Fold:
Amino acid sequence: MGMIKTFFAKKMVAKGKQKRPMPIELLEQRHSDLSVENFNDSSYFNGRSFDGSSFVVRMAFRNSGKKEWWFKLHLPKKGRFELTDLRGSYGEQFQQGNLQYKCIHIGKKWQILYDGPLEDEAGKARQAKIDLTFEAVNNIVDFKQVKPATIIHQSIAAASWDKAFFKKLKEISKQHYEQAGFLKGTIEIDGELTRVDWHSVRDHSFGVRKWGNWKRHIWIGGLLTDKRAFNISGISYDFLGELQAGFLQNDNKTIGLKSSLLMSEISSKALIPKTFAVPFTLHDGTTKTMHVKIVDAFMFEMDDNYQIFEGLAEYELDGVKGLGVTEFGFNPKFYPTIKQVMGQVL
Structure:
């Protein structure tokens, strides 16, 4: 029975990989499907500099659940700022209230605009004006076009198959793509202007997303100073064991992740380690090790039943430095809350 399930699991994974990629003009649009429960269109940008400044912004467009966004900013010597109350309805394409992403050139350039209040560390309202431009250094990476990690069909084969399982399995087939580049522009706080020039990764996904079904995840993504982009990811659900995905990209040549360290191995000494190394193997047979150092973090809570530690990270691969985000997520039904383990990290 095990060999038969493995055979069909491989077929399912292969079928899930689209032979024809979705046109980039369609990928770059906001998506909605009112007929699908828990449909979520999520679009994210981060910004990181070796000077310690950091930024993350995310908008999610949902057909159920609470309104969802992230907007947190750290400027050394000026402080930390957060958008705590995003008012206003959904606008055209990627807009919630006075926060907006504008596509300037499909697959290459986006603008992030915000004009309104932010809250500082003391809880005081500060007037802000944000004008940032993301410009890609490589093509987008469509995960449906990247050769899958070996562990995916193994985890599906190991699960108990019934009608409820296959219904939940739709959650792992969402469309997801990423792109690395640079995020530059101006941030004005109470009339004081700061110019930023950040390493950046953007992410867009759409499909079923129900936070309460997630058990834990890790997302290691960034851009090296030689302009190689990378991703090493893992996720497990309350109905399915660990899945992995990822890639290494250089000059638009993308090689998929074959295998990597398990999340339990990364967290063998601490649930969220401050420094760690991740050996990984690519589908071309190359084996490398990503060195990770978390220097700061932002925290987010999703639907009151999932918590995310947005680790602001420095990387080293093949002796080359890089910047990005190492994100840990946990369902408090299965793991300690992030507040309980914060002392291990920062």
